[in-house]
Amino acid sequence: MQSLEQLVRGRVRYLGDPGFDAATAPFNKRYADVRPAVVVSPRDHVDVARAIGWARDAEVPLVARGGGHSYAGHSVGSGMVLDLSGLDEIHIDTATGLVTVGGGVRSGALYAALQQHDLAIPLGNSNDVGVGGLVLGGGVAAVSRAFGLTSDALVRTEIVLADGSTRSCDATDNADLFWACRGGGGGNFGVNTSFTFQARTPVPSSTCLLLWRWRHARPVLAVMQDIMATAPDEFAARIGASRAGTEPGVVSVIGQHLGPAAELREMLAPALAVADPERVEIADRDYWDAKDYLHHETSGDPFAVRTRCTPKPLAEGGIEAIVDAVDRWPGSANPDGAGVALFTWGGAINRIPTADTAFPHRDTLFLISMDTSWSSTDPAQTIWCNLEWLDGVHEELGSYATDAAYVNFTDPALTDLSAYYGANHPRLARIKHRHDPDGFFRFPQAITPLT
Ligand SMILES: Cc1cc2nc3c(=O)[nH]c(=O)nc-3n(C[C@H](O)[C@H](O)[C@H](O)COP(=O)(O)OP(=O)(O)OC[C@H]3O[C@@H](n4cnc5c(N)ncnc54)[C@H](O)[C@@H]3O)c2cc1C
């Protein structure tokens, strides 16, 4: 058997080699102890195919790493990590608006390239997230209610399969794989070495950031839900109830409107009237300023997230459950704290039939994201209390919201993958069987092949 170094042209690194940690460290430090045996940084799709072939022959498990931001640490394992950071080319055809990126491109690099040509693709709110992980699980941006998901803008992808063959996939060629790559979750079907998106023209925007004291939580959460239930597709917001350290809770609304600030202020008027906010920022911004304003970086210290979905505003009991949960959060040393957030989905996301792509959540008004975080210096008891708290909130909100979960807000505590994939789960399992019958691409929540 040839050595890896003889087979691939890219770098091969082992524990202790310079750059090994940077090429493998998961963003979520909850998984910082998981150390792979080897990291291969392929130069191109040929290297990717050779690394896969070597790992198969050596029976070494392999996971691909895009931006390393999987909440559940799914891009690091005990065997080989395929670090895709070298697949970083970006090509923009200004005549057609078609944008092709390598499988390891990060969102920030793509945003910067798009801005030069004033072209837009719905990407997320972090520069460091990999485009690969984002698009394969769906990809939701503040503009998704108007522009659709990242995966709705995907028109072609190249993927290297478990047998080492490369497939070009679009709506006509290898259409089953193309369908699966639009929401079926990263790492399941192969290693995508490129993605082609149809870009569109950006729209002048406005943004809002509103903060209220905790005593106003109930009325603000209720009225904000009502506002978003009838808001036009151009407006999306994240409505948050959270706490950190020993501070009292805070209610926040951060959002983007593809229209003037005057319209945004009018839509928010009922929330501004229901209780006096502590902070109000509502301003016109061009599309790119709005993107920067909404960008959000967190410490990446250990955290855990669980999700649910709801097609309509939560009933009063649901709001009560959120407020209670924030009140009884056990605390930790992580400045990110904990909370519950309602991300407004719907609009253009909901106008695509559920069976058209693997992403199943086409009937959702809010993604409900419950999160907690702790520090690596916190004692085991604190971690245990935080995870127990999170499970408790998830269970309580089960009375008000559905079991549907967002695969990109990966929840390692989830046992039934149908929560991620809904009615599309069996079809994904059959596609997995067709292209990876032995389940070579394997990780704790990988789709199981189904005959
Ligand atoms: C700070 C932060 C902000 C976020 N913001 C948003 C947001 O605004 N909207 C949103 O929808 N989500 C958001 N997310 C979630 C994000 O979409 C997922 O965590 C995503 O999976 C991360 O992709 P990655 O490539 O960075 O991660 P990785 O950990 O590298 O990959 C995630 C999964 O995809 C696989 N994968 C990655 N690249 C490829 C590839 N080229 N081919 C095959 N498999 C691949 C990996 O093997 C792994 O299973 C955010 C996450 C964080 C931590």
Description:
The strands form 3 sheets. This protein has a 7-stranded antiparallel sheet with strand order 13-10-12-11-15-16-14. The chain has a 5-stranded antiparallel sheet with strand order 5-6-9-7-8. A 4-stranded mixed sheet has the order 1-2-4-3. It has 451 residues and is an alpha+beta fold. The chain has 14 helices and 16 strands. Helices cover 29% and strands 22% of the residues. Helix 8 (217-230) packs across helix 11. The chain has helices spanning 4-7, 20-24, 45-58, 107-116, 131-136, 144-147, 175-180, 217-230, 261-274, 287-294, 316-327, 380-397, 418-421, 425-435, and strands spanning 11-14, 38-41, 62-65, 80-83, 90-93, 98-102, 154-160, 166-169, 191-198, 205-213, 235-243, 250-257, 279-285, 303-310, 338-344, 366-373. The chain has 3 domains: 4-85, Uridine Diphospho-n-acetylenolpyruvylglucosamine Reductase, domain 2 (2-Layer Sandwich), CATH 3.30.43.10; 88-201, Uridine Diphospho-n-acetylenolpyruvylglucosamine Reductase, domain 3; 205-397, Vanillyl-alcohol Oxidase, Chain A, domain 3. The model has no long low-confidence stretch (mean pLDDT 97). Flavin-adenine dinucleotide binds next to strand 3, helix 5 and strand 9.
